Amino acid sequence: xxxxxxxxxxxxxxxxxxxxxxxxxxxxCLLGGVVRVDDTLSAPPAAAYLIxxxxxxxxxxxxxxxxxxxxxxxxxxxxxxxxxxxxxxxIVAPAVIAAYSLAVRTERRAASxxxxxxxxxxxxxxxxxGALSWKDAxxxxxxxxxxxxxxxxxHSTQNRRAYLAxxxxxxxxxxxxxxxxARRRVAEERLRIARELHDLVAHQxxxxxxxxxxxxxxxxxxxxxxxxxxxxxxxxTGDALDDLRATVGLLRESGDAAAPAEPAPxxxxxxxxxxxxxxxxxxxxVHQEGASRPLPPGVDLTAYRIVQEALTNVTKHAxxxxxxxxxxxxxxxxxxxxxxxxxxxxxxxAASTAPDRPPGYGLIGxxxxxxAVGGRLSAGSRPEGGFLVxxxxxxxxAKRETDGPATGEAPxxxxxxxxxxxxxxx
Length: 426
What we know:
By secondary structure, the protein is of the alpha+beta class.
C-alpha cells in the first residue's frame, strides 16, 4: 500500500485549517447524536459527546496514517447503535473525512478495499446492535454510501493532482530539452564557424607563406621574379583580410543585412581557386568525366572547400610541385579526388613541414563537411606514392535524362576541358 502523504512538519496555516476541520466534524457528529430513533430531537447525551470526541481526536492521523484513521472512525461509528444512538450520516461525518483523506493519499485498489470494508461494517452495525426494521434500510444505505462517495471524490482529487504533477514534469523536461537543444545548436554553430575560418585562413596563409618563401629564395638571383612574388603576396594578404573582415562582419550582425551578402563559393569559382595555387607555384591539372550538373548550395560549398583544403595540404605538406584534381559525375553523386605524387622538393613546403608543428584540423573538417551533406570522404597514402583525398557527394535527381557520355571529356564549369588548364569562371 502506497501512502503519498507528507510526514514532515506542517505549515502554520495548515494547523488552523486542521482545527477548523476538526471543529466542523465535531459539531456535525454531535448534531447527529441529537437525532433520536423516532426522528425527534433531544439534548445530546454523554454517549454522543464520547463518539464525537473519539472520532474527531483521530482525524489529525489521517495525513500520516489514513488507514488507521479510517479504522478508528469506523469502529466509533459501529459503537453508535450499541450506545443507543441513531446511526446516521451526520454522526459518521469523521469517518467520511477520513475516507476522503485515505482515497487522496493511498493507491486506488487498497483504498477501495478499505472503504468497502468500512461501509459494510457501518451498515452491518445497525443489523447487529440496533433495531431490525426495514424502515431503517434507506438510512443504512446512506450511511454506507457516504464513505464510498468520499472515496470517489478523493480519487478524483488524486487524479487531478497526478495530472498537474505530470504537466509540471513535462514542462520541466521540455524546458530542459530546449536548453539542451539550444546548447547543441550553439556548439554546431561554433563548429561551423571554426571550420569556415580554418578553411579561409589556412588557404590564404598557405598561399602567402608559399609566395613569401619563393620571394626569399629568389631575392638575390632573380629580383624581377621576387618583385612579382611580393606583389602576389600583397594581393593574397589583402584578399585574406577582406574575406576575414567579411566573415567577422557577418558574425557581428544583430539583424538582417542591409545589402545582400556575397554568394558562397562553389565549383563555379574553382578555376580562380586553382589559379591562385598556380601563382603560388603549385602545378594543378584538372580532369572531368561525365556531364556536370548544378549542385545544391550546401553541396556546392562543400565541394569547393574540400578541393581548397586538399590543395592547401598539398602545398603545405606534400613536398611536391604538382597535384591532380578529378571530378567524376554520375547519376546520383559526384566524386572528387585530389592527388599528388609527393615526389618533388617543393620550395613552398619547406617552411611548413616542421616536425614539432601541432596537427591541424583539415582532414577532420573535410570529413565533417562531407558527412553533413550526406556524403563521405576518405584520405590516405597511395600505393604508388603520394597522397589521395577522395569524396563522394550526393546529387539531386536529374530533371530529365541526358544523352551525354558516361565517361570521357566534358566541359567543366568555367571552360576547363580534360587535363588542360581551367578557364575563366562563368
